Amino acid sequence: MTSLLRLATALDSLWSSPVCVTLNTNTGVVPLKKLKPNGLKVLVVGGGGREHALVWKLRQSPRVSEVYCAPGNAGIEKIAKCVNIKADDVTGLLTFAWEKRIDLTVVGPEAPLSAGIVDVFNDHEMPIFGPTQKAAEIEGSKAFSKDLMQKYGIPTASYGVFTEVEPALAFVDELAARKTIAGSPCVVKADGLAAGKGVIVAKDVTEAKEAVRSMLEGNAFGSAGSRVVIEEFMEGEEVSILAFTDGDHVIPMVSAQDHKRIFDNDEGPNTGGMGAYSPAPVYTEELAQQVQESILKPTVEAMKAEGRPYSGVLYAGLMITAEGPKVLEYNARFGDPETQPVLMRLDTDLVDIIEAILEKRLDQQAISWSTDAAVCVVMSAKGYPGDYEKGNFITGLDNPIAGVEVFHAGTAQKGDHVVTTGGRVLGVTAKAQGIREAIELAYRQVGNVCFDGAHYRKDIGRRALERLS
């Protein structure tokens, strides 16, 4: 905190009036300045497809005058001012926010949340949207989230947590011996943050043990895999539910379904997500009510009871099993690529929702959604999710089809050209009256975009079409 005080003192001269710095050591709820009614300067932290979608949505607010993004990308550059500050450079972001008198900061990725960016901004009475460091541990540690669910009776798969190889291998054998599910005996997860790729669904005992060894002995995911969570395999259909919460009240967003595997028919290694659509037909109104009462509300209440009040967006990755919905994982922020189709359907001003959360009056905020469907198809670089190519020119980005937004995920401007810089390059997102129409629209736009080695799944939305046929 001493360094933060020195920083605050140095920056205080930049303001025309004295700055009140409140140091809060328990990272609980901090009283913040109220947002201005209009003329807001907004900073979005991050540089991927989710952040492009957030910038796109925030710019639609009549209350917003300027949007900055750190570090941003080539697509974001066209609608906001990008600044060369890394998303996990908390001190740099705070300095920039003070210099520019930013009225609201919205955090996209998980790394700065786990690093405590919200705590730092709160300490300096700088309005910021996202959970505190202690609350973000619900994503930062899978062991913590599993223990939380077990303690508070939130439905999830049985599991074990290990730092040593031999006990972990013995647990794999134990799960296989139960034979409750034919095929995959278990799922092996790196405990820490691994950019959505630290999950291995083992097809058999041999593969499961290889995954354990690769994480605990082979350093496959670095420090994130120094502790592993091994779970019983759950059978069913996945659905992603993002929810707004102010720590007391929870309002779920419209449902979505992600596509984690790199290849069609859910084959190949896990990725950060190869596409998503909303709504997910598997998620009925009855299921929605069940999830609200047995998962979303109990999770927020549990975090409050643990002294980790949770405010922001809570993402629940669910498996719809024969026994009902169960939690696969939590994220402490907007999901990517689910954010793209979900925000395409949001009719309410996102700034108004964020303000209601910051002021802890979410229960008084009406939120409306389009009845249209939205589909996001991710175009990735050759080699992703392993080592991938960079620097390839992208063509066909100009004049997108009506009803389509091309959200940039891993791009940069190089002279007059946009080039690839990330594994996931673009998120082509379409909105239409029905899911079939949205799928067709998205793939029409995908066909117009080219870069060397471009890869995308051809079956985004397949499960939805099967249920609707």
Automatic annotation (TrEMBL):
Sorted alphabetically, which Gene3D superfamilies does this protein's record hold? 3.40.50.20, ATP-grasp fold, A domain, ATP-grasp fold, B domain, Phosphoribosylglycinamide synthetase, C-terminal domain
Task: Quote the EC number.
Answer: 6.3.4.13
UniProt keyword Ubl conjugation, yes or no: no
Q: Entry's InterPro entries? A: ATP-grasp, ATP_grasp_subdomain_1, PreATP-grasp_dom_sf, PRibGlycinamid_synth_ATP-grasp, PRibGlycinamide_synth, PRibGlycinamide_synth_C-dom, PRibGlycinamide_synth_C_sf, PRibGlycinamide_synth_CS
The record's keywords, sorted A to Z, are:
ATP-binding, Ligase, Manganese, Metal-binding, Nucleotide-binding, Purine biosynthesis
Outline the extent of the ATP-grasp domain: 146-359
Q: Please provide the Gene Ontology terms (biological process) for this protein.
A: 'de novo' IMP biosynthetic process; purine nucleobase biosynthetic process
The Gene Ontology terms for molecular function here are: ATP binding; metal ion binding; phosphoribosylamine-glycine ligase activity
- Which family does the record claim for this protein? Belongs to the GARS family.
Q: Which cofactor does it need?
A: Mn(2+); Mg(2+)
Query: Which pathway?
Result: Purine metabolism; IMP biosynthesis via de novo pathway; N(1)-(5-phospho-D-ribosyl)glycinamide from 5-phospho-alpha-D-ribose 1-diphosphate: step 2/2
Could you tell me what reaction this enzyme catalyses? 5-phospho-beta-D-ribosylamine + glycine + ATP = N(1)-(5-phospho-beta-D-ribosyl)glycinamide + ADP + phosphate + H(+)
The protein's name is: Phosphoribosylamine--glycine ligase
